[in-house]
Fold this sequence. Notes:
The chain has 839 residues and is mainly beta. The chain folds into two domains: 2-652 and 705-838, Beta Barrel (Maltoporin, Chain A); 653-704, no CATH class. The protein has four helices and 45 strands. It has a 22-stranded antiparallel β-barrel. The protein has a five-stranded mixed beta sheet with strand order 4-9-10-7-8. A three-stranded antiparallel beta sheet has the order 1-2-3, with no helix packed on it. The longest helix has 17 residues, at 2-18. It is globular. The chain starts with a helix and ends with a strand. The model is unreliable at 1-29, 31-45 and 753-778 (pLDDT under 50).
Amino acid sequence: MLQRSLLGTASLLAAASLSVSPAQAQSTSIPPAEDAERPNASSQQGGLSEIIVTAQRREERVQDVPIAISAFDGGELERRGVTNALEITQYVPNLVGLNNTGLGSANAYFLRGLGNTETIPTFDPPVGTYVDDIYLSRQNANNLSLFDVQRIEVLRGPQGTLFGRNTTGGAVAVFLAEPDLTVGGYAEAGYGSYDMKLARGSVDLPLADSLAVKVSGYWQDDDGFTRNTTTGERINESDGWGVRLGLRGELSDNARWTGSYMHTESQAGNILNFACDPRNPPNCEGRFATTGYLKNGDFGGRLTGSKDGYGLGIDTTMDFISSNLQLGLGNFSVNLITGYVYTTQDYALDFADGRGLPSLLVPRPPVVGFTFGGFVIANEGEYSQFSQEVKLTGSLGNGLLDLVGGLYYFEEDNFSDFGDIFSVAVPPLLPTGLVLVLGDRTLVNTTKAYAGYVQGDLNITPELTVTAGIRYTDETKTFSINDNRASCNDGTLEAGCLSNANLIAPNGAVIPREQSIGIWTPRFAVNYQPNPDLLFFASATRGFKSGGWNARGTVPGELLPFGPEKVWSYEIGAKTELLNRRLRVNVTGFWLDVADLQTPSAFTRPNGSIAFITRNFADYENKGIELEVNAVPADGLNLFAAFGYQNDKYRLDPDDPQFDAFGVESVLSQQARCLAQLAAGLVPQGGAAEATACGVGIVAPDGSIATPVRTPKFTLAFGGSYVAALGSGLTLTPALNASWRSQSETGTSQLTLYDQPITSSTGAVFPSNPFGNGPFITGSFSEDRWIVNATLTLASAAGWSLSAECRNCLDQEAVESTLAQFSYLNPPRTWLVRAKFDF
């Protein structure tokens, strides 16, 4: 098996790395920037912490890097109370982060307007997640618990030259803490909202003068913040645990090795819930759900395989292995970077909250809590990837030319077995509704990619540097699908079976099951640094995101391919440190030009079923500005602010043909049909009288072209902390931070269905359900919202500390995602008290 062989490969590489002897490398040396004695990547100078980053695949001060980058070291993460990867998104300009619908373990990032909410493996995210330089190809488990992290770097804009494919929006790079060569660590326990219990810890153990290990882990358990008023169960818990073994070997002056093994498990959910109880609309004290599907439920043989026995909920596991061997070669160093990631994700999630679906004859029913849910997707998934990179860094001509280059190989094999269950209201109302299996199929897809890259910085003068780089990527993807239903495996193949033989487009064209691309992604930059505290830069960078298949489709003709997304980004910016490094101000302006934007969309058909489509609907343009400020006006006082502005739009080409090669209508043609249907008296989402071309894709219900999703015009974050000395070695540190973003769309076609607005217990006004099912949020519009977090910490010089914190302290309710005419909210207010001991 690939999994077993790759695990063996990684183990052999680790063993080989440890076996390197000084004699083998005595003619080389590690560059000074790779000093082994560096327990963390930041130092305190002039009040502000100086963070060392690797945004250009070599170690540099963050202020010397001509890239728009937000960097957070361990101290800053602790001051802002960041405990998982999603929480960091509050503090990065023009970045919107959210849990995927249903999946609390999966983050979807929208950076400068580019993002993707899909976790099915025929889709790739445009904002790449990296852990210790290892790319995580799937979003399924990227909401990492930050229990053992050295720093996080968020690179804004495409990183196609040095990071490669699927970074058209940017990259979120997480770097795990290296083992220290002295004994130390911490232990922490906490208790909080919804009976949450939390434990974390880490210990560094030196095994020799040049060899150390780090053992760390976390565990958390709670009851869930949502009460199901149909079943009495609590859902949307954040249960999970993880362990990590880190290794570090300073093998000689010329060789060092670091490696990790990490295992995580998560049952974190983001199941549809509402601010008011649909069964008792005046009750708006909490979060509520009404699905009739139970945590210990099953589908009674309606689905095949293990997924037929999955109850309501989710279970995600990830095994992560990394190895980085560095060898010094005079003025150069070589890194052999090996990674293997194996992820499983099993779930059964109700995306219609037990309400069933409307049909041509019956509207969406009142709250009934159908036994098998309203619209449930059950999924069994296994996803494995292997990557190998050889990276060379160094300089020539006594520092005249700095180089970084390398070769990269990536292989991915994915397996998904998933089915869709629909419950339809039928009078007289059946206790379980009419249960339909819309799809039950097994999907297998693979990716192989080869790349080579090089970037050079020509230091023309000590102040002026010109950069040029290029990457070539050769990638091949394959896709295969098989229908699991008995009627599709009885010797005859029905036309509706989701099988390879039926992959025929609406115009009769054969849907290809392989895609290949070879593409160059260059970068050009110039930066002028008149002194160490001032940097000006300008750059042009190209990136691309891989193509794929619309594997969410429930009829063969919907499983269409979509092409790569290609991006050019232009930036100009300045980085400054003022007042003896007590004030840092960084500003960037950007213009993003995207060809063939990949856009997932979902809509309800006239018969009540849900259709999923993803196409290269249009081109896209975004331009904006980003400002970040950090200040230490007095010892112990840390302040920050981040501001983002963006102005984006879809672009349509009037020369596009009316239909593409697979018979899919162009957006302009669809818009014309929509306007004609509206003129004829049809209405969007109106059953038998529906204007079927309206409210679909990026055509809005009124016939206009929709606003791009999750691109608030303004984002703002600010806050600070102050360390107050109390005497006797005690300090008291209050910390407060807030983030705000302006209104934005969350649905690609801007479908918003209102009846009468209602007011929740917090004073927020939301629309009610148009089918009379009680007041709950529906539609695709997110109002502007504030999220405020606060922490108070009492600490002792002896190493212990006590803290109390609240997250979303004002209990703000905001729409994050939209699916099937339902909206998904951010988590409610929570509190936590913790005790920690550092040793």
